[in-house]
Design goal:
Length: 146
């Protein structure tokens, strides 16, 4: 029994040591991972940007960025981001859609976490309706007066 406990303790120690050794490498630190558009008008500019810094000690590579639907289109730097350098993840939301929204952008990276999820949210107002012109009586029709 003592040998089994000793073997388990040694395995846990080895795993902990290995995990501590892998803390280096690239790391993404965002100013914010949630972008709140607030309440905006129908067909307003839906372009925003997430700003990040590589706070790690190796070049950061973003291999892909994927929106949760076709209404959310991300852009990202294709070249490696050096340690200490900053970059942006652009996102364009289709503001022709009316109502509240919450969408995500999933980044595939070479960080220890391998992926990072960013969120956009807000509400798009209904488009203003054109005023209806008052109807005019037809001309030439007899009007009855009592």
């Amino acid at each position: 029994m003592k040998k089994v406990i000793l073997a388990i303790a040694l395995m846990i120690g080895a795993v902990t040591t290995q995990a501590q050794e892998t803390t280096g490498g690239p790391q993404m630190t965002f100013e914010s991972t949630v972008m709140d558009y607030g309440t905006i008008e129908h067909k307003a500019d839906g372009t925003r940007a997430f700003v990040f810094t590589n706070t790690g000690d190796a070049p950061l590579i973003i291999s892909n960025a994927r929106g949760s639907c076709g209404c959310t289109v991300p852009t990202w730097p294709k070249e490696p981001i050096a340690p200490g350098a900053s970059g942006t993840i652009g996102v364009k939301y289709d503001t022709k859609r009316v109502g509240k929204f919450t969408k995500t952008i999933t980044l595939s990276t070479n960080t220890a976490e391998k992926s990072k999820i960013l969120t956009i949210k807000g509400e798009i107002n209904k488009p203003a309706e054109a005023p209806v012109a008052p109807s005019k009586p037809k001309t030439g029709s007899p009007v009855e007066v009592n």
